Amino acid sequence: MVLSNKAKNAMLQGLADTLNEGANSTLSIYVDSTLAVELTLTNPVELDITAGVLTFKTPPEAIAVASGVPTSAKMLDASGALIADYAAAEIALNKDKIYQGGYVGILSLKVRV
């Protein structure tokens, strides 16, 4: 099955709508199994949905609670339910290593269908 861009965009709008429900959703970034930093996503989360790509608005930086090289991330909705798992390579952070007490942000976050 090959989806049209219209169908892909509708699916991504559904994802954005889920993340926009209630208070802000979060992107939790981990070093191994330790939570290093939790970024609060904007509401609405989407900057653009075009041609099967959801581009997120850049969330504000947050202060790290642990140090290390990021290994994974989890996107959670406002209720804390898991929406997506990411490998660290799928998220463009503003630093290669996270330092406890330092600010961490993302350069870009996209979802492609």
Query: What fraction of residues sit in β-strands?
Result: 35-45%
Give the count of helical stretches.
Answer: 1
Count of folded domains: 1
* Order of helix and strand elements from N to C terminus: HEEEEEEEEEEE
Radius of gyration: 14 Å
What would the principal axes of the Cα set say about the shape? globular
What is the average per-residue confidence, as pLDDT, rounded to a whole number? 96
- Proportion of residues in helical segments: 10-25%
Low-confidence stretches: none
Distance between the termini: 13 Å
- Could you give a short account of the major beta sheet? 4 strands, antiparallel
- Derived from helix and strand composition plus strand pairing, the structural class reads mainly beta
Strand order of the largest sheet: 2-1-6-7
Count all strands and give the number.
Answer: 11
Question: Explain this structure to me?
Answer:
With 113 residues, this protein is mainly beta. The protein has one domain. It has 1 helix and 11 strands, in the order αβββββββββββ. The protein has a 4-stranded antiparallel sheet, with no helix packed on it.
Question: Concise description?
Answer:
The chain is mostly beta strands and 113 residues long. It has one helix and eleven strands; from the N terminus they run αβββββββββββ.
